[in-house]
Design goal:
By secondary structure, the chain is mainly alpha-helical. It is built from 2 helices and no strands. One of its GO terms (cellular component) is mitochondrion.
Amino acid sequence: MHPPLTLHRHPMCAEIIEEFQKCHVDHPVKKFFGECTDLKIKLDQCFRQEKALKRKANFEESKKFKERLQAYKREMAEENKES
C-alpha cells in the first residue's frame, strides 16, 4: 500500500509516480500479475527517502524550537527572580 499519489505532495518522486500511473493505465490486467512491480518497488524506496528527509528536517526544526523555548524559560525565570 502507498500514500495517495499526488504529485504536489511528493515532488521528489514525481517522475516515478507518473511512470507507475502510466504502467497501470497501459496494463490494466497485467498490473495484477506483477507488470508494474518494479516501479512499485522504486516508488516505495523513493517514499522512504522522502520521508527520511522530512523526518530529519522536522527533527532539526524541533531542536531549534526547544532551544528557543528553553531560552525563553530561563529569561522568564530570571525576570521573576528580579521582581
